[in-house]
Model the fold of this input.
Amino acid sequence: MSVIVVVGGQWGDEGKGKVVDLLAERARIVLRSQGGNNAGHTVVVDGRTFKFNLIPSGILHPRTICVIGNGVVLDPKVLLAEVDQLEQAGADLGNLVISERAHMIMPYHPVLDRLEEAARGDDRLGTTFRGVGPAYSDKVRRIGFRVGDLQKLRFLEKKLDFVLPLKNDILVKLYQAPPFTRDEILAEYTNFASRLERFIRDPFPLVQTAVGAGERVILEGAQGTMLDLDLGTYPYVTSSYPSSGGALAGAGLGPRHVTTTLGVFKAYTTRVGYGPFPTELDDSLGEYLRERGSEYGTTTGRPRRVGWFDAAVARYAVGVNGIDSIALTKLDVLDELEVVRICTGYSSKGKAEDHPMANISHLKHVEPQFEELPGWRQSTKDARQFEDLPEAARRYVERLGELAGAPVDLISVGPGREETIRRRANW
Ligand code: GDP
Ligand code: IMO
Ligand code: MG
Done:
């Protein structure tokens, strides 16, 4: 049995795509467990860059089955565009499986996402406008459309006759926006049905068989722990559960199946969208790291907010996910700095806090406590063994692991597959 749960330990964009692609080489299945096309995962192979919004990052390995799991909200239009793009690039999508249980983003969801954000005014969340929040709300309200509904078009039509008037009422009466037309949606989704048919399957037997045979199964996380609906900086979160618990629910596996929970962390911190960010660097150093790390959103192109590594966040992520192994990415981005800082905890109203508190108005005003370490001022890009790293870089990495509470088993020093230090056999 070898189930690896890959979770983002910060606010997303930690480099999960790269890490999943690496581990997928030996995997039977890579399963995207939750989230939607709010995610953007980048994989760089032989200098070619691939960006995935919905398709699992294992797709470049021809023998690996890639599953879009039941916990995902899938926009059929976006998926089909991704499929076309990958097929044009020569990828084989014969191994792509979409769970009948995954929910679909409907045309009114992105529109409502935008309108709701606008209505929040100064309190807006900074969503990706992909309709993810509205789609998950409908799932919880039990008025969502599932991928399996595409195989029962009469049922889909009947449901639409009930749901669409509810949506149009809100669009027209609350927002004075144009309504959607039933027949147009039906025609569009009927077309999706025929184009997606070849991928729709129940992944249950596939996943159970692989797990039973002891083959490697990777649950690919999206977003990050601090964006988790329950565990993150609510309401500045996404509408799903990027933590390991959410990964299991979104895949249809149980805790007994898990062999490793791998937390992916950036060697510093970034966040897109609004909400508290205690170690944020709102200065020229932040600007420098944003440029050097190309910190612009994969999905929306928005500049990412940048800050120092926050070990209070990392410790929290290790605890709530049960992380027992860390992949640390983008170490190379810090190569030129004279000193590097790590936040070890916060001071809040004179009280020491060792993890992010639930009360975000308090979290917003904490004073981060920093430990300063010497920089290495030397390139790490060519390091392939831990021993190849400059001593100061090794100290930084070990200290992060120590403060977070889990070993750093994989270190990434560039976007390419080969720009990686593996400290664990078979990884
Ligand atoms: P994800 O959402 O967690 O998969 O991460 P993203 O793909 O959105 O963002 C990570 C970005 O950093 C991508 O552009 C990657 O190609 C890049 N990247 C990943 N690892 C490294 C690394 O070690 N060094 C550098 N310089 N870039 C990296
Ligand atoms: P990956 O998988 C970074 C953020 C948005 C916003 C908040 C809510 O690439 O790490 P939503 O559209 O989900 O309702 O927006 O969540 N967000 C992400 N930030 N990486 C992601 O995914 C994200 N997915 C959502 O920026 O702040
Ligand atoms: Mg991303």
Q: What stands out?
A: Residues 3-90+202-422 form a domain with the Adenylosuccinate Synthetase; Chain A, domain 3 fold (CATH 3.90.170.10). The chain is about 30% helix and 20% strand.
